[in-house]
Amino acid sequence: MVSPMEFIPLAEETGLIVPIGQWVIESACAQIRDWMAAGLPEVAVAVNLSALQFQLRDLPRQIARALEANGLSARCLELEVTESVAMAAPEESIRVFAELKAVGVRIWLDDFGTGCSSLAYLKRFPIDGLKIDRSFVDSIATDPNDATIARMVIALARELKMQVVAEGVETWEQFSFLSRARCDAMQGYLFSESILAEDFARLLTQGRRLAVPTS
């Protein structure tokens, strides 16, 4: 096994991240199609876009073709763009976001809080939500500063009519804090470790839910 921390920087350096990224989108759409063909409920799969991929002029058409080829509605695919990538050229990002939204997919600003977003641009980005970076979630139950930042991001998203997702939730203390703060959704090892597609299909079939402690 080769860690993504090793091969993704090399793929970005060589430009191979572009065909890899397109393969990921096509594979995600094909997997959703296979799940639905097996009678499983429709689910949305989120795919990260690299900086080079985000700059492709035909990216919206590639995504539209992948959805059409697999007979999927646009609501089945969500795209994640890091805050730093979006803010590298904010005016261009607004154009790309608008074209992607015209396809119908949902868009998330990933790793929010680690970059330097201008609120003037943030309100202009036609996106659906923010993802709080795990660096703020790690100590959210013990560090007052991280707790304050998380609450502010949640409040900001709510005021901008966006949703907010917390990344890297691994403890009940983090879950409890974010629930009280009215975070819309969470992801992390508290819910599940990374699993294979067939294992995820079994989870969908079983309809398993998280057993939240009562005390």
Task: Explain what you see.
51% of the residues lie in helices and 13% in strands. The chain is an alpha/beta fold and 215 residues long. It folds into two domains: 1-117, EAL domain (TIM Barrel); 128-215, EAL domain (TIM Barrel, Alpha-Beta Barrel), CATH 3.20.20. A six-stranded parallel β-sheet has the order 1-2-3-4-5-6. Helix 2 packs parallel to helix 4 and helix 4 runs parallel beside helix 6 (90-103). The longest helix has 21 residues, at 17-37.
> What sort of overall outline do the alpha carbons produce when their principal axes are compared?
globular
Please, how many helices? 11
Give the structural class.
alpha/beta
For the record, the CATH architecture of the largest domain stands as Alpha-Beta Barrel
User: How confident overall, as mean pLDDT?
Assistant: 90
Helix % is 40-55%
Identify the quaternary structure here. single chain
For the sheet with most strands, the description reads:
6 strands, parallel
Helices and strands, in order, run as HHEHHEHHEHEHHEHEH
What is the CATH C-level name of the largest domain?
Answer: Alpha Beta
Percent strand = 5-15%
Layout: helices, strands, pairs:
Elements: H1 4-14, H2 17-37, E1 45-48, H3 51-54, H4 59-69, E2 77-82, H5 83-88, H6 90-103, E3 106-112, H7 119-122, E4 129-132, H8 134-137, H9 144-159, E5 163-166, H10 172-180, E6 185-186, H11 197-206
Parallel strand pairs: 1-2, 2-3, 3-4, 4-5, 5-6
Helix pairs in contact: 2-4, 4-6
Features:
215 residues; alpha/beta; TIM Barrel; 2 domains; 11 helices; globular
